Amino acid sequence: MNLSPVLAAQTTYPFVRIEQAKREAAARGVEIIDFGQGDPREPTPPAIKQALVAALDERLGYPKAEGLPELREAIAGWCSRRFGVELDPAREIVPTYGSKEAIFSFAQVVLDRDVKGVVVVTEPGYPVPERGAGFAGAEVVRLPLREENGFLPDLDELDEPTWSRVGIFWLNYPNNPTGAVAPLELYERLADLAVEHDFLLASDEAYSELWFDEPPPSALQVAVRANVVVFNTLSKRSSMTGYRSGFVAAPPEVAAALKQYRPTVGSAPQEFVQRASVVAWSDEEHVARTREVYRRKRELLLGVLERRGWRVAGSAATMYLWVEVPGNETDEACAERLLRHGIVVAPGSYLGESGAGYVRIALVPSEEECERAAAILEEVL
Predict the structure, then answer these.
(1) Range(s) within the chain of domains with CATH label 3.90.1150.10
(2) How far is CA 373 from the centre of its chain?
């Protein structure tokens, strides 16, 4: 049987590798505290669950790709309150099945490979934009995120011929895995470049609500929005990974293309999930409580890392600590050593070449587990 050569060329998804290593350690009797994958374990707020249950009916038809009007209006209201941006719920917002599937399929919808066949991604980072671009037949250009540049892409690394062929430029801030926050100036410059070179600036903002000092900006805020597309989700903000509910905010012509494409693949949130999502986007109190929980867990881990002489290179936002591996130990060897003591972290090199020498710690275990992990780390670091 002949399979897709793009699929055959894919390496193992990094979190699958982490899961395999974790299972092997557990089989040896190691008690696991898992900081490897960014899957929130905080309870979903009761009002959201109640809204989902209340929306269950005896029969539910196929959900429509454009989403419920009430959900689109709730998302537009949140964008207005949070970023001061007014969006047309009918023409500029598309609810999605989480943000992962929308990010993966985006290049298939908007990319003309014969005219603008380059997709720019940053690394280390979330692998889905690059993998989606590969399945769309794009040429992928990777921009490294280096610590000396604040984990921001150096746009001057792209020459004029490359800019002329760019169809999509992907950003992800607050950034997974580095925890960096982008200044509004980066969005402004890229939005200007998007107009100048006729590409789409695609901004994955899944972590926009997990911050510690001040709320980060959004690509929605840039003055030139004609070529800007923003992806967001309730997964991290409201601890709703299993619900699969997000949105795309896009110019009307891009939103129309998504609405034309999405019925073909059937990726719309179930109506009961959409009803629950209306409640989630309309409430900020549970988000503030969630931020406070992550703050406490962050302080626990920062304390032990500092005492043991480990340098945290990034933690301004998101649920992640981006930690430099000291000495001559590789990030993979460090992760393997910690796993022997039951602490699961993600080697930075799993997330891209520029991640070598760092490990990512996802603050998803409970506070009690974080306290136990801190005690273990005091002994083994």
Answers:
(1) 5-43+286-380
(2) 25
57-282 CATH fold: Aspartate Aminotransferase; domain 2 (3.40.640)
pLDDT single digits (tens) 243-276: 999 999 999 999 999 999 998 887 788 999 999 9
- What is the distance between the alpha carbons of residues 321 and 279, in angstroms, rounded to a whole number? 30
Residue 195: HSE in the Cβ half-sphere, 13 Å Cα cutoff: 11
Distance of CA 61 to the CA centre of its chain: 30
Q: What angle do CA 285, 287, 292 make, to 5 degrees?
A: 100
pLDDT, one tens digit per residue, over 21-80 is 888 888 888 899 999 988 999 999 999 999 999 999 877 778 888 899 999 999 999 999
Tell me the C-alpha to C-alpha distance, in Å, between residue 345 and each of 76, 145, 302: 36, 20, 15
Delimit the CATH 3.40.640.10 region(s) of the chain: 57-282
Structure-block tokens of residue 201: 């600036």
Amino acid at 232: N
Euclidean distance between CA atoms 363 and 261, whole angstroms: 36
